[in-house]
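Here is one chain, start to finish.
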Amino acid sequence: MNVHVEKDPTTGFEKVILKEPRGSSAQVLLYGGQVTSWKNERGEELLFLSSKAIYKSPKAVRGGIPVCFPQFGGGSQGSLEQHGFARNRLWRIVESSVPLPGNNDAAPVTSINSSNKAIVELLLTPTEDDQKIWPHNFELRLRVALSIGGDLTMTAKVKNIDSKPFNFTFALHTYLSVADITEVRVEGLETLDYYDNLDELKRSTEQGDALTFDTEFDRVYLSTPNKIAVIDHKKKRTFILKKDGLPDAVVWNPWERKAKLMADFGDEEYKYMLCVEAAAVEKPISLKPGEEWTGRQELSAVSSSYFSGQLDPRKVVQGSSNEHLPQNQTSIISRFSLRLFAVITLMCSSRNPNIKKF
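Its structure:
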């Protein structure tokens, strides 16, 4: 496993590079504590990063996985900017799975004992200017881990080190790279309630077997399962997002009209991205002095097999990693896939002890 820090000659920002022996890699900017690259062992980029992204403070970088704190969206925390300030502040390295020098005149980086993951942990604390717009003392830690096999895990911890309680909302604003947005489906959010940001936050219930996309999309799904699948039919690739401590899920694509209104987003780039974000939005998190909250997401990418255009349900159930978050409260398999899976189970259960009978 390899972790090192280098300065990007194009952007001028320092970044942490994580690599694992099979060839997977990830890149984390210290500006924003933002993952801006996640590649599989074939060197294929799995995250979307706009070709027009602006790398200049105080602008947030368009793409990758921005950290939204202490608010997601806007308006809930007074004068705070959209999605909060964590994504355009300079973070510092505090821990790593290999020895690294300290940065920003800070103490030396603490070593993490890990032989099967490349890990870096970053820390954000408020500046005087931050406290003028959000008057609370906190520590926000973000641990980014790349496992053998290429799974990317992000663990966020917020600690209240103030003398009074505070509330916040949070999201990992993940931009996934897809081949064609019109050939993408999301499974795991069917039958759930959501707020529609395109319809004055109207609360509705999802009616389809899966989400598909042919126009602008901006919804916050509530009380979602711990596992969501994003199926890219054209690439024959499935992203599995597992999460814990982040009950909501935001799904967003700006589509053509809004894409043309964003200076840091290409006019046609909406075709090649989809945001699926692990979030805590509906019910703000409340911390008393000394309390700490943890939220976690794990991303994996697997090859998809199809039955009548559906995801191979065995891959959803079994996943692609030996390390699992808590089990789903709700299956992410569509009703069609469940019926098909029952047939497959009857045929295969005697040979495969990992598949349980219904």
